[in-house]
UniProtKB/TrEMBL annotation:
Annotated source species: Chanos chanos (Milkfish)
Family: Belongs to the ClpA/ClpB family. Torsin subfamily.
Residues engaged in binding ATP: G81, G82, T83, G84, V85, G86, K87, N88
Signal peptide per UniProt: none
Gene name linked to the record: LOC115823704
GO CC, alphabetical: endoplasmic reticulum lumen; nuclear envelope
Domain annotation Torsin-1A C-terminal: ranges: 253-307
UniProt-recorded Gene Ontology molecular function terms: ATP binding; ATP hydrolysis activity; kinesin binding
Name of the protein in question: Torsin
First-listed, main subcellular location of the protein, grouped into a coarse class: endoplasmic reticulum
Localization per record: Endoplasmic reticulum lumen
Entry-linked InterPro entries: ClpA/B, P-loop_NTPase, TOR1A_C, Torsin, Torsin_1/2
Keywords associated with the record: ATP-binding, Endoplasmic reticulum, Glycoprotein, Nucleotide-binding, Signal
GO biological process, one term: nuclear membrane organization
Annotated Pfam families: TOR1A_C, Torsin
Length: 311
């Protein structure tokens, strides 16, 4: 959770302000970044580790969408994978390629299922608020970005609220949603992805050879998400109606990637790069399978905290 998510809590206070059409100050204060393919490519290459599939699909999808003057629908990306493998991180990279203030832009809206919609009994209120929030923000700023974290824990009633915004309609209640971006993050499909990567590793294949359709990964993620009875996703028409443009797998990270995360955190903390320290911190993380210890159980999550413990 971050500060942006608190905005939602103040919804009732600010809603009238949003619809009062006096919010032009956003547009002065928080301009869009001119889209630059090379900058996004470099950002993905330099700051995203071990995710060659996500990197390639995101680059193509975002650049295609951002350079399309007349998109027929909003861009809808669904990120899948275990914990700490970079799903939020990539959402932030996308935001940096669009807004001058990146992920801190007022036009980036983050919803975390269990944080923002915790009480089943309030579902009807949440539905109304979510609808108003998306409508209000896109009507005042069409190039808005909505990030839904923990999508697998999202109530299907809320998913149904989002659905019309993702569709091909030219306008809904007088507003076009075609320039907006929706990203859905979830751990659903994570086990399928991990198994594919493990099998490929066991067979001695290079990680970078894995592609979206390798070993039926995409189909199996799709099946897993669709059939997961615990997740709101499964009976929602999002998948059935093909409103998600790209299902993007995030692979489990290996020791070498965790080590890169440690070095990145050293740079962020202004600590001189130290290979020995990077090794010690990366070794301190848990890995699976229990015997081979190839993939990080928590991805790069809590690397910063571990590093701070070591210095
Ligand atoms: N593939 C990666 N490349 C570079 N940094 C990464 C990567 N994965 C994770 N990180 C680092 O670890 C932090 C935590 O990762 P992130 O929040 O993106 O994980 P997540 O996949 O969204 O996990 P969760 O499912 O638990 O929300 C990020 O802020 C980033 O610093």
């Amino acid at each position: 959770m971050n500060d942006r998510s608190n905005i939602w809590i103040e919804l009732n206070m600010v809603q009238s302000w949003y619809t009062s059409k006096t919010n032009r100050f956003f547009q002065k204060d928080d301009l869009l970044e001119p889209f630059d393919y090379e900058r996004l490519k470099t950002d993905l290459k330099d700051s995203l580790y071990g995710q060659h599939i996500a990197s390639e699909v995101v680059l193509k999808a975002v650049s295609g969408f951002m350079t399309d003057k007349h998109p027929s629908k909003p861009l809808v990306l669904s990120f899948h994978g275990g914990t700490g493998v970079g799903k939020n991180h990539v959402s932030n990279i996308i935001a940096r390629s669009i807004y001058k203030k990146g992920e801190n832009s007022e036009h980036v809206h983050v919803f975390i299922s269990e944080h923002h919609f915790p009480h089943k009994g309030q579902l009807e209120t949440y539905k109304t608020q979510l609808k108003q929030w998306i409508h209000g923000n896109v009507s005042s700023f069409p190039r808005s970005m909505f990030i839904f974290d923990e999508m697998d824990k999202m109530n299907s009633g809320l998913i149904d609220v989002i659905k019309p915004f993702l569709d091909y309609y030219p306008k809904l209640d007088g507003v076009s949603y075609r320039k907006a971006i929706f990203t859905f993050l979830s751990n659903a499909g994570g086990n399928v992805i991990n198994q594919v990567v493990l099998d490929s590793w066991m067979d001695g294949e290079e990680r970078e050879q894995l592609q979206m359709n390798s070993r039926d990964m995409e189909t199996n993620i799709f099946k897993d998400v669709f059939n997961a009875k615990s997740s709101g996703f499964w009976h929602s028409s999002l998948i059935g109606d093909h409103l998600i443009d790209h299902f993007i797998p995030f692979l489990p990270l290996e020791y070498r990637h965790v080590r890169q995360c440690v070095l990145a955190q050293m740079a962020a903390l202004n600590i001189t790069a130290n290979d020995g320290l990077a090794d010690r911190v990366a070794r301190d993380m848990p890995y699976f399978p229990p015997e081979e210890k190839i993939f990080s159980v928590k991805g790069c999550k809590s690397v910063r905290q571990k590093l701070l413990l070591h210095i």
